Amino acid sequence: MRQVGDEYESLLNDVLNALFKVIPNCMALNMDDSLMPIYAVSALKTPGLLAFPYNCGGKPGYVVIKEDGQVVFEDMEGNVQELGILP
């Protein structure tokens, strides 16, 4: 179990480091007393793989990583803005 946890943490760090290169001006939100919650995108308008709570352009919402590596920001009102592509 520990090996699985270590691999998960390493993969998450790799994803977050790559994501930061695409969205350096966005700030991660701390929600639900967790440092980095990951949300399923099923509750969002944007289809994708993972969603992270972020504040971009002064608006809270979710940074979504799509299957093709495209990164978008969806605010709480459902507005979507393209941010870039993961390297």
Strand order of the largest sheet: 1-2-3-4-5
DSSP helix count?
Answer: 1
The counted number of beta strands is: 5
Low-confidence stretches: none
Describe the largest sheet: 5 strands, antiparallel
Question: Could you describe the 3D structure shown?
Answer:
By secondary structure, the protein is α+β, with helices and mostly antiparallel strands. It is 24% helix and 32% strand. It is built from 1 helix and 5 strands, in the order αβββββ. It has a 5-stranded antiparallel β-sheet with strand order 1-2-3-4-5, with no helix packed on it. β4 and β5 (80-85) form a beta hairpin. The longest helix is centred in the first third of the chain and has 21 residues, at 2-22. The chain is globular, with a radius of gyration of 13 Å. The termini are far apart.
Describe this protein with a few key phrases.
alpha+beta, globular, 87 residues, single chain
Summarize the structure.
This protein is of the alpha+beta class. It is 24% helix and 32% strand.
